[in-house]
Specification:
Blueprint (H helix, E strand, L loop, with lengths): L12 H17 E7 L10 E5 L6 H9 L4 E6 L6 H9 L3 E3 L7 H20 L3 E4 L14 E2 L1 H12 L8 E9 L7 E7 L19 H22 L6 H21 L9 H21 L1 H21 L19 H37 L3 H37 L7 H41 L1 H22 L18 E2 L1
Parallel strand pairs: 1-8, 2-5, 2-7, 3-4, 3-5, 6-9
Antiparallel strand pairs: 7-8
Helix pairs in contact: 1-2, 4-5, 5-6, 7-8, 7-9, 7-13, 8-9, 9-13, 10-11, 10-12, 11-12
Length: 499
Amino acid sequence: MGRAVDQVSDAPIAFRLLYWFMRLLVWLFFRDIEVVGLENVPSDRGGVVVSWHPNGLIDPGLIITSLPRRIVFGARAGLFRYPLLGALIRNIGTVPVRLKENSSPEERRRANESSLNQLAQAVAHGHLTALFPEGISHDAPHPMELRTGAARLYYQARSLQPDGALPPVIIPVGLHYDQKKVFRSRALVRFHPPMEIPKSLDVKPDLDEPEPETRERSKALTAEIGRVLHDVVLATEDWKTHELLSRARTLMRAESAARHGRDPGPIRFSDMAKGFARVRAGYLARRKTDPEAVEKLKGRLNKYNSAMIKLGLEDHELDRNPKLVSPWISLAAQLLLVFLLMPPLLLFGYIVNGPTALALLGLARAAGKTEKDVATIKVLCGAVLFPATWVGLGFLGGMGYLELRSHFPRLPDTAVLHGILLAFLAAGSGVLALRWLTLARQTIRSVRVRMVRMSRRDVLARLRADRAELHKTLMELRRGLDLREGSRFPPPKAAHVAA
């Protein structure tokens, strides 16, 4: 890909500072972030990045830090009233967007037209902007009702372009989280190819086009955006269906590995999404041609899924025990290492960081009204509370050393050095303590799974048989379908459009 017209390295200093700060935050919060499809983002024109909005401020943070190009965002106007935050987002070129509250319809219309025009000017001049057409963040497994702002912005940008200029593109983005409110989980950001806009909608409007005509065309393009977003985010009608399709993916993979006598091994999040897309595509296709068979299969899947959840097993654990930390040590040696040798070394980290972590967890649970708010609160508040804890400990350590030196004057004058070292020790021990917690959970689970496999052999044999039968049925249902690209199938339901 050629040089972008607005690379991050060319952006104002305020944007670069925010960019690297947000990269640090998302790197700390997520264990793994996969970004795929950057080759689909053109460098020779502007565009509108559209995404669903399942995870609060985490969503724009991932988009900003995944793209090598600067993005011009719109933000709720109330955010500009906060002294530090307002100054920061204003300096990076964020455009204020007025929502419905405390304003007349005419005031809202004028304010939104002004915001729309500023964003459209940026797109017309070759920049990228990002919008969440739903207008709100949510916890549903599918996009909510779409607003027409993204479509109106697109047409406004096209109308402002000179004749002969390359038209802007609409780039759909899939944001996927395996456990979106859990610290150190995984995320996938997938940039899909620019939308193929239907010929009837692929037009450059006149600046003085009548409003009714603009409104109808924007509603039609918004419906098209909604259709694409349903596919891009792998939407399902409810979370139960999503859970069953996920189970179908994992049991297919486990059964295939078992038949070939191999360990399925770890899987990348992007490959999980591809597998889920294929299962979903087959589900949508067969629901049209043979709905009765699909409903019967869902009932069988639900029974198998409930049994697996009750046992607390993954599909491949019907065949083999989970791996240990290292192939060179036994389970007894791992228990000794994790629960006897490591805890004393990490005691300092837990004493220092434990109260802050508990306070942050309580704050997130109390203030997070919905699941998508929890991750936002953890990231933003944790970015303040933990460094404050480390700096505070360093300050107290330095002051304590000064007090000690007042009684023992022969001690070297290194209070500042002691304070800095103590702060770094607090941060480092906190990271190690977090790693130990992960190892402890894995070890406990390894023991529990082994106990289940030894004590419930008859149940596991029955579940292996059920898994084989479900695999056979799924293979029969997919016969004749081309599932290499899940996006070739329509969404599970029509997208709603708000004028």
